[in-house]
């Protein structure tokens, strides 16, 4: 199985620098254009199944990518973005600048982050996204050949980082722009990272390897 792990397209909150988390924000015009470009890029891939987070911005990205294809597709709550609790909607720039903010370490020192009440921990995020990978996707290895997964910046990294040997302490290290794509192999029950495009070169048709500029 070859898995195409995609981050959703842009939203107005992305553009403004607001924390979205599990707040259900839809794609903006640019986000729809990004998804349409990705659809063109993936037009030669015979996708035969698709999953996305159940949040609107991921579902809409999936729907645009799959336009014209008649394949099974599912909304998956386990792929939702990390829950940032009562601080969703806040400005990321302000959170990162305020050492006393409850979410400051989440972004500045993720290895030390202790989730406050109402927010989700890294352990909980990894648990649920890998529950999807191990318990829902892995059993489908012989059923489907090319599978699309549309998730989010945090949820996507929780899948991608372990495959790239990136520890929680460097959780945000790898860039993951809107409509970034990772290609992952599932073979004999094991996941392996093949390629990664952080989202800055995809429109040109160039696929970058993980960690490349």
For the record, the CATH class is Alpha Beta
Number of helices: 7
Q: Main sheet: which strands, in order across?
A: 3-2-4-1-5-6
Which class best fits the helix and strand makeup? alpha/beta
Structure, described:
A six-stranded mixed β-sheet has the order 3-2-4-1-5-6. It is 31% helix and 17% strand. The protein is built from seven helices and six strands; from the N terminus they run E-H-H-E-H-E-H-H-H-E-H-E-E. The protein starts with a strand and ends in a 16-residue tail after the last strand. It has one domain: Phosphoglycerate mutase-like (Rossmann fold, 3-Layer(aba) Sandwich), CATH 3.40.50.1240. It is globular, with a radius of gyration of 16 Å. It has helices spanning 12-16, 29-41, 56-65, 92-97, 104-108, 122-137, 153-163, and strands spanning 2-7, 49-53, 73-76, 146-151, 181-187, 190-197. The chain is an alpha/beta fold. Mean pLDDT is 93; it is low at 200-213. Helix 2 runs parallel beside helix 3 and helix 6 crosses helix 7.
Please give a quick description of this structure.
Helices cover 31% and strands 17% of the residues. The chain is an alpha/beta fold and 213 residues long.
List keywords for this structure.
Rossmann fold; alpha/beta; globular; 31% helix; 213 residues; 7 helices; 6 strands; disordered C terminus
């Amino acid at each position: 199985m070859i898995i195409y792990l995609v981050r959703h397209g842009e939203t107005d909150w992305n553009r403004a620098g607001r924390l979205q988390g599990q707040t259900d924000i839809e794609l903006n015009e640019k986000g729809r254009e990004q998804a349409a470009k990705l659809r063109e890029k993936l037009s030669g891939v015979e996708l035969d199944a698709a999953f996305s987070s159940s949040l609107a911005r991921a579902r809409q990205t999936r729907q645009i990518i799959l336009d014209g294809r008649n394949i099974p597709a599912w909304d998956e709550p386990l792929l939702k973005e990390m829950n940032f609790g009562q601080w969703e909607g806040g400005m990321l720039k302000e959170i990162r600048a305020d050492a006393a903010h409850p979410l400051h370490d989440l972004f500045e020192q993720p290895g030390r982050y202790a989730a406050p009440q109402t927010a989700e921990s890294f352990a909980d995020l990894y648990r649920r996204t890998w529950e999807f990978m191990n318990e829902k996707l892995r059993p489908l290895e012989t059923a489907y050949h090319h599978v699309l997964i549309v998730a989010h910046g945090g949820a996507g990294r929780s899948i991608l980082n372990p495959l790239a040997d990136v520890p929680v302490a460097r959780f945000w290290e790898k860039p993951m722009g809107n409509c970034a794509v990772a290609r992952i192999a599932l073979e004999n029950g094991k996941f392996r990272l093949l390629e990664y495009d952080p989202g800055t070169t995809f429109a040109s048709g160039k696929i970058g390897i993980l960690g490349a500029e």
